[in-house]
From TrEMBL:
Residues 194-325 form the Arsenosugar biosynthesis radical SAM protein ArsS-like C-terminal domain. Residues 38-185 form the Radical SAM core domain. This is Radical SAM/Cys-rich domain protein. Signal peptide: none annotated. Transmembrane segments: none annotated. The keyword Metal-binding applies. CDD domains: Radical_SAM. It comes from the Bacteria. InterPro entries: Aldolase_TIM, ArsS-like_C, rSAM, rSAM_ArsS-like, rSAM_sf. Keywords: Iron, Iron-sulfur, Metal-binding, S-adenosyl-L-methionine.
């Protein structure tokens, strides 16, 4: 176990996460792979304060075509329902468009997670249209509906650019038409929990319409997971223990059946397989040690999930996953 996870384990007032799971089946995946999340690299045009994968412009880890091909083979063989492409800024991977193109040929639900700001850069200006042509679902992160809060987390001017890009996506039909899905992600800017998802969605929709006349389908609220840059922030600010205590006190067993790790895998840039993106950030590969290359041509088997104390981030209150609340 790495030092960051050791630190979470050694917090004396927090019981081990695994002890909280009383029903054995929730320590295991289901027997079907429904979602493959492909993390195409840690390279990003931004370097947000809360980034759990510690992405940024100086990162050099980028997935190559061979790993992508193996991912696609597994997705096809397992007939996955969703291919979820993320990063970093996935658009910056040189094989990104090829991957989207191929993914759309074998799967009817392809998601791309974008920070929006990247779409304003000259090299990527054609991508909104490319997304619409492929009818990929866009999940965009908009940390808040006001400039001040978002710019503090993402950098000066990021909010204004993101709004401009959402307007462009709306003009293409995103957020309006059923087959051009535009979803948003909210995560808190500090050591506190997100509000109830349905209430926050209502607030986002009304503020963004009033102030900018922009629309979107759904808002996903995500609890900040105590890994990566966010864990470092918690330590620096002296909030690690109290944040973990809050998460542990808010443990909700009803969120366990919907944990995203139960029906998905997350593939790293080098082909290593993880139970989820948070485990990838925490450098905790699947307990079987498999890479995506090992999974090609094999039937999918139920496996034990690699759980540790950062998992409290997924089970607090209404629960949290890459698709928002889980309860
Ligand atoms: S949070 Fe997203 S946009 Fe920000 S640095 Fe991380 S990957 Fe990039
Ligand atoms: S952090 Fe990952 S492995 Fe842990 S509960 Fe959440 S989704 Fe599952």
């Amino acid at each position: 176990m790495n030092q960051a996870l050791e630190d979470l384990k050694n917090l004396t007032n927090i019981p081990d996460f695994e002890e909280r799971i009383t029903e054995e089946e929730y320590r295991y995946t289901t027997d079907r792979l429904e979602v493959t999340q492909i993390n195409v690299g840690r390279l990003c045009n931004l370097a947000c304060k809360h980034c759990h994968v510690e992405a940024g412009p100086a990162r050099i880890e980028v997935m190559d075509r061979k790993v992508m091909e193996a991912c696609l083979k597994v997705c096809k063989e397992q007939k996955v329902e969703t291919i979820d492409i993320t990063g970093g800024a996935p658009e910056m991977n040189p094989n990104f468009e090829w991957l989207v193109d191929e993914a759309c040929k074998i799967c009817s639900h392809v998601i791309v997670r974008t920070n929006l700001v990247i779409l304003k850069e000259e090299k990527y200006r054609h991508l909104p249209k490319f997304y619409a042509d492929h009818k990929v679902e866009i999940v965009c992160s908009l940390p808040y509906y006001r400039a001040k809060e978002m710019n503090r987390v993402r950098g000066e001017g990021t909010f204004e650019t993101a709004i401009e890009m959402i307007r462009e996506l709306n003009e293409l039909g995103y957020g309006k038409e059923n087959d051009l899905v535009l979803n948003m992600v909210y995560n808190p800017a500090g050591a506190f929990f997100p509000p109830v998802q349905s209430a926050m969605e209502k607030e986002y929709k009304s503020r963004l319409w009033q102030d900018y006349e922009i629309v979107f389908h759904n808002l996903f609220t995500i609890t900040n997971n105590p890994t990566g840059r966010f864990e470092a922030f918690l330590k620096r600010s002296g909030n690690l223990e109290s944040y973990m205590k809050k998460l542990s006190d808010a443990f909700n067993a009803a969120t366990l059946p919907g944990l995203m790790c139960r029906f998905q895998i997350s593939v790293g840039y080098d082909g290593q397989v993880y139970d989820c993106d948070f485990n990838q950030a925490a450098d905790l590969p699947v307990l079987t040690g498999e890479t995506i290359f090992n999974m090609v041509g094999k039937s999918f088997k139920k496996r034990k999930i690699c759980l540790a104390n950062h998992c409290y981030g997924c089970t607090a209150g209404q629960g949290s996953s890459c698709g928002g609340a889980t309860e």
